[in-house]
Amino acid sequence: MPRRSKSLDDVLSRRERQVMDVIHRLGAVTARDLKKNLPDAPGYSAVRSVLRTLERKGHVTHRLRGTAHVYSPVERPSRTRRAALSRLRRTLFEGRPESVVSTLVDLEAARMSDEAYERLIDVIERARHERRARRGRS
Q: CA-to-CA distance for 43 and 37, rounded, in angstroms?
């Protein structure tokens, strides 16, 4: 049984993260699929090597389809996104979630619709309400 790491992004190389991004985007891939979808793709044997490493680390699993190995992620993409964002928050934003959100809004302000702003406000208000409700129960 492959071991399961504590945090996906804390243990993956840049290339391994690129491979995981493609696997999450496509759902299930062969080494050939990966080679076609990776930026600056290495040779076929190098792609296979990265897949074996990811499987050994417990991030992907495979099944046979004919003679091809088809690789799928062990974790859901949402968990991977959370781990990556948590790492960015700690590394680049001094652990402050408001800095992350502020930066994202600043970057996307020209493209965000009024509906997108409303959804953000709703998410923040819902989180604030849930936090207050938890405090009230403590």
A: 13
Does 7 have pLDDT greater than 70?
Answer: no
Residue 86 lies in a domain: no
Please report whether residue 119 resides in a domain: yes
Amino acid type, 126? R
First to last CA, the chain: 40
Which pair of tokens denotes residue 99?
């800095």
DSSP state of 111: T
Question: Which tens digits make up the pLDDT trace of 33-52?
Answer: 999 999 899 999 999 999 99
19 and 73 fall within a common domain: yes
Residue 132: per-residue pLDDT = 92
Output 20-23 pairs: Cβ under 8 A, ≥24 positions apart. Answer: 20/54, 20/59, 20/60, 20/73, 20/80, 23/60, 23/71, 23/72, 23/73
Cα–Cα distance, 78 to 67 (Å, whole number): 31
Please give the model's pTM, rounded to 2 decimal places. 0.59
Give residue 64's domain range.
8-77
pLDDT of 129 > 60? The answer is yes
Q: Are residues 68 and 37 in the same domain?
A: yes
What tokens does 60 get? Answer: 């992907």
